Amino acid sequence: MEKIVLNYPPLAERIKEQKSEQSKVLKNLKEIAADYSKPVLKNLARFLDKSLPKLYDGINLTFPEGMDFKKLVKENNVVLVPNHQSHADYIALNYAIFKKFKFPAYIAGGINLNIFPVGTLFRKCGSFFIRRSFSNDITYKLTLEAYLYYLLGEGKPIEFFFEGGRSRSGKLLPPRYGLFQMLLYAHSKLPLKKQRKLLFVPVSIMH
């Protein structure tokens, strides 16, 4: 992962000009990157199997009829874009995907969620963490772009909340385009042999 990130063309160019930036990039990457563990997500799924029926009156985790999500991920760079109403949203979609297809989505979450022990659990289940503001930190922005570049190149499905924050009313909020634009740019830098169609898939989460 580190090698791919450091070879992301815009970031590699910056490091070439300023050698000292490499250590900062690696520090940023450690702060951002998921640390996926299948056994951890498997155990969490078992825990949710037992606890969710006690917390909710009913749960309906469905995919559109005829949709082969596994094939979709294999043939495309898939980015899931659900609406965002509660902190349960981070778990709901990954739980549904892992239960049915046995692989995770890599979820973009705010750095405020990276608190022990929840942050460690989320990271092990495929979450990666992003600072709320980094417009003046070019190296951080390029590191995040490079991590997205890594995930896309490895064919990992990515999930982010287009609204940015949670909707207290349940209504859709105006989209925020920062991460969307970074995904487009990172995808454009992929080598042709790894470049597949970039597919944004809307997801409805309703409470």
- Tally of DSSP helical segments: 9
Average residue-wise pLDDT: 89
Helical amount: 40-55%
- Record field, number of beta strands: 5
Element-level helix/strand string = HHHHHEHEHEHEHE
Q: Unreliable runs, pLDDT <50, ≥5 residues?
A: none
Rg over CA atoms, rounded to whole Å, is 17 Å
Query: What would you call the shape?
Result: globular
Widest β-sheet, arrangement of strands: 3-2-4-1-5
Tell me the major beta sheet: 5 strands, parallel
Q: Give the distance, in angstroms, between the N- and C-terminal Cα atoms.
A: 37 Å
Structural class label:
alpha/beta
Key phrases:
207 residues; alpha/beta; 5 strands
Question: What's the gist of this structure?
Answer:
By secondary structure, the protein is an alpha/beta fold. It has helices spanning 2-6, 9-17, 21-32, 38-55, 69-75, 89-101, 118-124, 138-153, 178-188, and strands at 76-82, 106-110, 127-130, 158-159, 197-203.
Structure, described:
- The chain has 207 residues and is α/β, with parallel strands linked by helices.
- The protein has 9 helices and 5 strands.
- The protein has helices at 2-6, 9-17, 21-32, 38-55, 69-75, 89-101, 118-124, 138-153, 178-188, and strands spanning 76-82, 106-110, 127-130, 158-159, 197-203.
- A 5-stranded parallel sheet has the order 3-2-4-1-5.
- β2 (106-110), α7 (118-124) and β3 form a beta-alpha-beta unit.
- α3 crosses α8 (138-153) and α8 (138-153) crosses α9.
